[in-house]
Amino acid sequence: MNAGIAGDTVRHGRHDPDLPPFGLKHYLICLKGIMVREGLRFLHQRERFVAALVRPLIWLFIFAAGFRQVLGVSIIPPYTTYVLYEVYITPGLCGMIMLFSGMQSSLSMVYDREMGSMRTLLVSPFPRWYLLVSKLLAGVAVSIAQVYVFLAICWFWGVKAPTTGYVMVLPALLLSGLMLGALGMLLSSLIRQLENFAGIMNFVIFPMYFASSALYPLWRIQEASPLLYTICRSNPFSYAVELIRFALYGQVEWLSLGVVAVCTAIFLAAAIRAYDPSRGLMARKQNMGGNA
Amino acid sequence: MPSRIMIVGLGLAVGMSAGSALAYEVYVSNERDNTMSVVDSETMEVLRTVEVGQRPRGITVSRDGRFIYLCASDDDTVEIIDTETYEIVGTLPSGPDPELFVLSPDGETLYVANEDDNLVTVIDIAGKKVLGEIPVGVEPEGMGISPDGTTLVNTSETTNMAHFIDTASHENTHNVLVDARPRFAEFMPDGEEVWVSAEIGGTVAVIDNATREIKHKIEFEIPGMRSESIQPVGVRINKDGTKAYVALGPANRVAVIDTETYEVEKYVLVGQRVWQLAFTPDEKYIISTNGVSNDITFIDVASDEPVHSVTVGAEPWGVVVSPK
Hints:
The complex is a heterodimer.
Chain A: H1 3-12, H2 24-44, H3 46-66, H4 85-115, H5 117-122, H6 128-156, H7 163-190, H8 197-210, H9 218-224, H10 226-233, H11 236-248, H12 254-274, H13 281-287
Helix pairs in contact in A: 2-6, 3-4, 3-6, 4-6, 4-7, 4-8, 4-11, 6-7, 7-11, 7-12, 9-10, 11-12
Chain B: H1 2-21, E1 25-30, E2 35-40, E3 46-51, E4 56-61, E5 67-72, E6 77-82, E7 88-93, E8 98-103, E9 109-114, E10 119-124, E11 129-135, E12 140-145, E13 151-156, E14 161-166, E15 171-177, E16 182-187, E17 193-198, E18 203-208, E19 213-219, E20 235-237, E21 243-247, E22 253-258, E23 264-269, E24 274-279, E25 285-290, E26 295-300, E27 305-311, E28 316-321
Antiparallel strand pairs in B: 1-2, 1-28, 2-3, 4-5, 5-6, 6-7, 8-9, 9-10, 10-11, 12-13, 13-14, 14-15, 16-17, 17-18, 18-19, 20-21, 21-22, 22-23, 24-25, 25-26, 26-27
């Protein structure tokens, strides 16, 4: 983090009391600006869009085919009958898109910081929390678009959910996207350099993804290892996946909804605090004489 | 304004009566625990479990829906169950080890395959007496009757034949060799074809009823599934004769077949070791009995998607749906 940015933001991050207060319209203009930038960035990186889709599709077409016989022996809610493995992992793969996408936007924040374009964002007179939430929403909107394209491909592959499920899944995706994005944002505040991001892959994304209910039902994990089961049960990503899974079948899983909502609030609060130049980790880093 | 209320009221009444009229009772024989499960076809919940004779297998219902006929194989008898009281109100005399049977189209005669003595027993239901015994191959099981009631087809599991029997003379007129272990025979609604499934052979033979020769053999292939585990048993064809459903045993799938092209259109995932099938009278659902997973699966006929699986008794074998 540049000392200059921190200095600027301390001054510009607060609204000048001499000016009239911002109306809703101003806030929306700000949100639109951030959204459009995120959307443009996404559209200009077609490889990123393809890459974001290829990952879950490889899982669906290849991995699921190989593990077809894994399931089909037990019925667990929200399913009311036997399902093929590809049907089971589809909500997990939606979660995977949200997870990778959330981490990717946090990566882009590290990049923005290094390249200096974050300065442009943070000199805005809007409150810091609002800027961060807008940035988060923009990232989530992009990943939701990816999920819907993925679900459309699944539909042609024969993995079909009830029509209402495709509507009900939207708020579930939004909330779990916010949770994962806020987590990514929190992590991004801890990373000083772009190169360190690989560590996030190894220490956050993979454990979160594999130690969850995305790829296998938790009762199966419990049979294999009670410890692993406990780990999976305490992984917020498991709850995000279950929230998406139930929503896709037109149901609300209240426990998952609660866990995801609480985690979102905690991660978001921590991220906002971390990005607060006067208190958070950024200030501390600066005091430590960091060069980032 | 009152007329509008009346229309709304009428609409509600029609809607409600239509809703309730769609619910049928599904009767499932549970081979292992000697019970029969009664399941509601709309709520898909078990309504009651009825104690019956030993090793219940073949199950059917009278044309008016008043009585259920059930093969109590180890009791060597066919039991009659009242669908109002769910009590056994009588028995019909069959040979030893009755396994499967078919009701004549007029609902008056029952043709029973007795697994142990290589006979098909013809029973007059009203008089509760045996009208005749027809010698067939070894281990008779599958029973199909033509829509006009003139031709009966029995399959013998060890002889590997479909025996064509004239119901007027009780004579075995034609024998058609099919693949190993034929389990089930089902006529097309127009009576022109008989479909015979072969459990070990893994095929369904389509036999021309006019020439009594096999005109086509349907084979099955499921990606990732060994061919030995594809064991066709129960066969059902819809009323307009366009779609056939074949239960594939330990493959845990029901094949949906286009009767024009004889091509398998889809494999529907159900529970483990699926044997018998039954349509609801409105053909909204077809229901499969899954012997190893102890449940039945409702398949939506319009979309051919499995909708719901319901746990019933131990080793569900046969299934029939009340006509009302």
